[in-house]
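Sequence design from tokenized structure. All designs in this work follow the same two-part layout: the structure record, then the generated sequence. An example of the structure record is given first.
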């Protein structure tokens, strides 16, 4: 029997790449999707899988992280060997506008999943997608697994709660539960409301003459940006270890939004000065400090390290948008 994986957030950037990875490894993949009026699942439609793999190895199930009963039924039906918890409200700016929803889906949703695992009656390995946003305004840099959390957004607070819940269930009930503290990771499948994808799309639109101006918030913010397919590989590696643990996954390099802008426009042969404007409405109420990760533990224990560097990442994203518009 093939291993069975259950992925929350399967329709997102990470969920789609993880699905491809697991199918190639012979898994049977089950994904949680919400029932909505729109059936658009573009990332899953674009999966690099054969028709047979789609039919025989990938299965979607309706449910919601806010509904315990539906999750319990799915666990009994699927009987997963591994659970990858990637779902939730992941946009920082939106979390300031919807803090209650963000905390319920992210924190309480994690608690609901952990309870399902505790009660399902079989060994299940659990991966929780933590985030570098939990570090907030750290006193030291780079950050590792022992750096204290100082969250400065409702999103980061909700993820810190989820992180501690995962550790708590590991320590209290002996669950194989891992936290992956992933720093920013991007790709052409990144959501359109995230700044890297917004820049790449904006550059392509300007290049094609459909737009003239790209409006952005704080371009001084510095991020540790990696390539999403490489980061999801680390998720799988964590669940293959003999002992559950927490890992920072990062490139160790910090680059500003401004650098991303300049590189993206340069790749397209455009002068960013003529096209970029600051939009105060896109500023966060509270900005994080210098967030850059130390992935030494992952290098040593998992054998993981990033391969795609900043310049190549920007090129991948911009060229994907230009190709789509061609």
């Amino acid at each position: 029997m093939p291993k069975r994986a259950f992925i929350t957030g399967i329709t997102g950037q990470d969920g789609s790449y993880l699905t491809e990875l697991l199918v190639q490894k012979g898994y049977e993949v089950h994904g949680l999707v919400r029932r909505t009026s729109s059936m658009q699942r573009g990332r899953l439609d674009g999966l690099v899988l054969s028709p047979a793999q789609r039919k025989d190895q990938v299965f979607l199930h309706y449910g919601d992280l806010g509904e315990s009963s539906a999750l319990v039924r799915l666990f009994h039906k699927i009987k997963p060997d591994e659970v990858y918890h990637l779902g939730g409200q992941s946009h920082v700016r939106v979390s300031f506008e919807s803090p209650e929803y963000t905390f319920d889906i992210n924190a309480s949703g994690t608690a609901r999943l952990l309870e399902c695992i505790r009660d399902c009656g079989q060994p299940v390995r659990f991966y929780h997608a933590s985030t570098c946003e939990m570090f907030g305004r750290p006193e030291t840099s780079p950050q590792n697994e022992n750096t204290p959390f100082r969250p400065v957004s409702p999103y980061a607070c909700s993820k810190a709660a989820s992180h501690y819940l995962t550790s708590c269930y590991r320590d209290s009930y002996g669950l194989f539960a891992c936290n992956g503290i992933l720093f920013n990771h991007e790709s052409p499948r990144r959501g359109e409301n995230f700044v890297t994808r917004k820049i790449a799309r904006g550059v392509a639109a300007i290049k094609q003459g459909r737009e003239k101006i790209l409006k952005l918030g704080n371009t001084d913010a510095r991020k540790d940006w990696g390539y999403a397919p490489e980061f999801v590989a680390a998720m799988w590696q964590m669940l293959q270890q003999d002992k559950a643990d927490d890992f920072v996954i990062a490139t160790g390099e910090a680059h500003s939004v401004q650098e991303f802008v300049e590189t993206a426009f340069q790749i397209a042969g455009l002068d960013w000065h003529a096209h970029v404007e600051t939009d105060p409405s896109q500023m966060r109420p509270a900005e994080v400090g210098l967030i850059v990760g130390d992935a030494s533990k992952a290098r040593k224990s998992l054998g993981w390290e990033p391969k795609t560097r900043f310049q190549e990442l920007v090129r991948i994203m911009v060229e994907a948008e230009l190709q789509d518009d061609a």
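The chain has a mean pLDDT of 93. We note this feature because it recurs in several other targets discussed in the main text.
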